[in-house]
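Q: What would this complex look like in 3D?
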Amino acid sequence: MGLALFMVALLAILFYIFLNQKTLLHVISISSATLFMLIAFFLTRSVLRDGVIYSAGFFYLDALSAMILDIVLIIGWIASIYSVGYLETEVKTGKLEVSQIKLYYLLMAAFNFSMMLALTARSMGIMWIGIEATTLTSVFLVGFYNAKKDLEAAWKYVIICSVGISLALLGIIFLHLSSVEVLNGSHLLSWPDLFANAADLRSSILKLAFIFTLVGFGTKAGLAPMHTWLPDAHSQAPSPVSALLSGVLLNTAMYGIIRTAAIVNKNLGSSSYTGHLLIAIGVLTMLISAISMLTQKDYKRMLAYSSIEHMGIITVAIGIFSPAAIWGAFFHMVNHSLTKSMLFFASGDIYLHYHSKKIANVKGLLQALPLVGTVFFLGLFAIAGVPPFSIFASEFSIIAAVFDGGHLFLGAFLVLLLAVVFVAIALVLFKMFFGKEGSTEPSVAGNVSGEVMLVVMLVMISVGGLYLPDQLIQLISQAQKLIIGG
Amino acid sequence: MDYYFTVLSTLILFTAFLLIANKRPDSYIKTFRAQSLLLALTTAIMGTHNLFAEGHYDVMVVCLLIIILKVIYIPNLLQKTQANVAYVVEKDFFSSIPLLVILCCGIVAFTYFTLISMEGMDAGPVNIQLVNSVSVILIGLLFMISRKRAIGQIIGLLVIENGLYITGIFATHGLPFIVDLGIFIDLITAVIVLAMMVFKLNDEFSSIDTNKLKKLRG
Amino acid sequence: MIIKVVAMLIQIILIIMLAPLVNGIIKKVKALTEKRRGAPVLQMYFDLYKLLQKSMVVSEVSSWVFRVTPWIVFATSLTACLFVPISSSLLPLHFQGDLIMLIYLLALGKFFMTLAGLDTGSTFGGMGSSREVMISAIMEPALMVSLFTLGLFARSTSIPQIMLHMQEQGGMLAHPAFILLFLSMLVVIIADTSRLPVDDPATHLELTMVHEAMILEYSGRDLALMEWGAAIKQLLLITLLVNLFFPYDPLPGAAGMGFVLLASLGIYIMKVILASVLIGLIEVSTVKFRLFSVPNLAALSFILSFIGFLQLFVLGR
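A: Here is my prediction, written as structure tokens for the whole assembly.
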């Protein structure tokens, strides 16, 4: 069943290579995304029933991978529907050629394929290969418009992330070194085997491996001080790509860190070593992003810094490593992906109308684009952590876990930083909503499909604050038990 | 066999020093080629040992791949890229070369003291090999951040990968075969992507001086 | 006692006679690789003989330094050659610390040469002197670290004893760090003997000269002494290089004394020829560095020797 995922992906890529007609490309994209989602639902159901799925020697799906895979494929589905409208509008206004649509879909398919590879791999080496492949396939997506700023963003992205990933490979080599006496043959570097035998691995080498893995995958996840590529890449990319990068790719990188941290914590018997490192980096990340958000002039860059901040929150939660904190972290990953992608989709519509990414050029949003404006407005409240949205629920559970664990100063500091973030968002962005609309251009018949999806997502995140479906709760709890170590 | 490995690791460290002391992109590429050749030699020695002792030929396949990719294809690709972009005769690095060279020395000492403080590392030849290989990784990193031109940064990345591969060979006698293969595919894709990016940068900015990429700040 | 004196005499005569041959071999190698026939290998002997016959022209504004320097250079080179072991069966003088003595004897000669370059008041001489002083200052740490590492390895600071110890250990194959020390010393020797890529010995452009500029004003017998002294110094440094890193002589006591001596001298001459060919090939394949790029070379040489030291004494434990 899991292999069906890869077969669909490869088929889709083949179709993209050989077909040229615009409508056909759109059809293939939407149908393949729907197929992915259906397969993912089946897989999640069997994970909820059986616990883990092993297949074909290299495919491995447990609750954690299933949770993140679901997010990837759901947001991928939403993105494919949104992209149809977005690309059509861009072709109509002449900013993109029709041939570029083919390149776009091809690269998106490859991107999806590499992310699926990373999430369903049993061997951590293959997981690394998948994560590196996501960098390579998204470089040209980031620099899609080929202007000077885009190329600069793409270059910084590829160089910084490649260096980071290489350091992560060093971490994986050390991981291998620490286990070379215990495992052999086909069990080398496989996560379930490493986790089961974690107590027998060599501690000192494992500690070194964790540092390198944290720095390496942390670069991909946007943790400070390796975050410098993120604002550029996420703001210069086309909006559906930004949504995928922010919502999905950062989670996949955190997945790598979580897997390694689980092994190290089980080996050392306590989470203080990884905890100190993770909390330190997480707090630094939140501090830098909160301060940077106060002076932003570009709304997409602002959203990118907000992604960095939320990744910092997740890192702190994993550093605490109590059951409640882990539950909160996973819940937050789900919520943040949905909310951030929705915001980026909405920002795409704003860009299509105003043709500028600067906050100063966008005025009177609620009047000009009522639906998109409202969604963006509410989404900003959501991302800042206002009830009743889902982000509030997950942030609350994380902060509660921090205070429960006895870290009073840390909790207070986190609350302070979250308040700074709220002020920054309010100050900078609410200028966009009111006032007279300056642009006299007639509103281009925008992105109808995208707007539909925006409403759907808004509903999802508002409901998520108050009520969660049972399957989701069960999935997250299963993932949490898996990582804590049963 | 351990003796050959130690000698080869010392020579690879020597090529890393040569790289830092180089001033022109053509010499970077030549030094990288020499380093990859030494890498291939190391893999060949390990491969023949594996072949005769255990009958696996996967390491020999990897050695062949190294020769085809890193010694022949990638340097040629980079030379073609270098030949086609704007050539400006100006200083390519941020601080003077003797300073960088002495920093490299510090890097080797630092690596040694870090690795020696970990229990579980055998003393003797493995220790020297490991120190040399991890130093090559860090020297590649230093090289990358000290060069302004895009080609220098690409070569730095490739040297880091070389160092990683050597560390893998010396520490654990190679990673699993599939992982090695995947790493090579990633590497070649990365180099192709980077070379295409260099062409695009050259088209837009008429130079490959990455110091000029300054528009996105803050 | 008599044996010691005889040994000293044999050593001195051998080195004096062999020194101009090295220059000849290097020039011949350069010529052959450029597809010329070049001067005969023994050319320098004829040059020295010719110079000794000629009269000298001495500048009126120069002082006693100018007149004394050729003798000092020749004398220091000769004294230094007593400490450098040609073969392990011929060890005229050795005491603890003769390593330092050797280096500073050669430095004494270089010091007087620098002064003499300044003495005549010509601009080119002064320029050559300042460059020479800069280059030797930056190359010295590498030389010191290499030689002292070898001394630490052999637990002695006496060169002949170092050579004996290396012979017992098998020379350069004893430890991979010796490769780094060898490369480092090679660079230092190229700089000290004023060869490409540091200084072009065949240049006739005064602005590019370093060593040649200092001896520009000399003529006749003084010039012969200076050139010969420089050639002896070159041979001494090459001897250090080959004998410390490739000491494959038959040990004394392996067979009859005379036979061992002749065999080891034969091996030594072969090693010197090979080293000269190597230096010649290096000269042919590089170009002269800009003066301010020489510190890069010096830094490279220094860290090679330093890393060699680290690997031998810090890592190996």
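A: To summarize the key features: The radius of gyration of chain A is 21 Å. The longest strand of chain A covers residues 53-55.
Q: Very helpful, thank you.
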